Amino acid sequence: MIAIIDYGMGNLYSLSQALQRLDHEYVITDDVETIQKADKMILPGVGAFGDAMRELNQRGLTKIIFEEAIAGKPLLGICLGMQLLFTGSDEHGYYSGLNLLAGHVKEIKVDLPVPHMGWNWLSFRHPHPLFRSLEEGHVYFVHSYHVQASNTEDVIATTDYSQDFTAIVARKNIIGMQFHPEKSGPLGMQLLHQFAEGRI
Q1: Among 39, 147, 154, 157, whose Cα sits 20 to 30 Å from the Cα of 79?
Q2: CB neighbourhood size of 22 (10 A)
Q3: Active site residue 91
């Protein structure tokens, strides 16, 4: 069972529909005991970093996500959810994140429209079980901030939008995708399926 963590700032419908099409069991929840009993966790997210951390803190979810992830439970952060995995963000001031991965979230500053919105090529940078039998392709992004990981080996895929940006991070049981796999066609669905199948 996959726990989709509901803290009021995630695109829960499209994600849950994608898991349903892939025939994976899931529950949308903000209940600590349900999250503890789940086999895997997905942390979606849309909106501002500081607002998201405030909601997680107020709902008592920050501690349980951190503890379950540190204990080895697979965790997938999507879009803002990926950014929340890191040390902190400079979005509208400085805010601390879950600090499961080392790095900071910075504003995108390029000579192209921001937010970065649309289909971009996903380039695999390091071999990883998540990529098993998959080929590079286009995925769908919507973001104005990007992750600067402290450990470059955590960045396993990037995309080029005037400069290289972090697209997928991975360290042991913790995965993050800056794009929306549930909206990214066959490649996105395959990546979501690989996570749900435990290929991390």
Answers
A1: 39
A2: 15
A3: no
